[in-house]
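Bit of a strange request maybe. I'm writing a small parser for structure token strings and I need a real example to test against, not something I typed by hand. Could someone generate the tokens for this chain?
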Amino acid sequence: MDEHLPAGVTIRRVREETESIRTFVFDREYAFVPGQFVMVWVPGVDEIPMALSAADAITVQEVGDATAALFRLGEGDRIGIRGPFGNGFSVSGRTLAVGGGIGVSPLYPLAVSGSIDTFLLGARTAADLLFADDIRASADLRIATDDGSAGHHGFVTDLLEELRPADFDHICVCGPEAMMYAVLQVLDREGVAVRGQFSLHRYMKCGIGICGSCSIDPEGLRVCRDGPVFSGDRLRRSEFGRYRRDASGMRERI
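Reply from user aminoacidic:
Good idea to test on real output. This should exercise your parser:
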């Protein structure tokens, strides 16, 4: 089947992960590399990019019109899927993962496959922690919450400061961009930015590198085709952590 054409899938199960996050399991499995994404079409509403959290699932946070419409769907409803697209994480040896909020989703397949040695998991509160029990069963899990309701009271980057990033062959990161940028600063300071693999989220229209809406300065890298996973040393020279663009192409500060 042509990955550039939407394929209809049926939702066979909806699992509530947190108050604002749900996993939608559908009736088709996709061959993918953790970190790759699909374009999800909610009929009559919009098409948006989402990382696969399993071969047959996406994990979604309700943040806008399309995700709100998706949250109104249930078992037996149909959505469209294009993809998978982009690259994914490439790991071997000792691997550290740093995830925050819904950004844990593309890291989750790595964790449950046993590819992660240490996982730093961040959230606003204990109730917002995503996939904590499953990750704990597969990796050394360390938690930070903004309000101190679980684990370290503070940011997930505080946990990173307690480790030696140079002890890891790969550091896979996904979450709010401000958090990821802070992680990059730590890795750069320790001289291991090249070992970082950062999964970016940008506004996308086509998902296949034609429209340019997800391009980032100054190289014009397309998040959908050249990413969404980029090495830390390449992002040091980009707009990453400083600004992004809205649907009209206007810059907005991060």
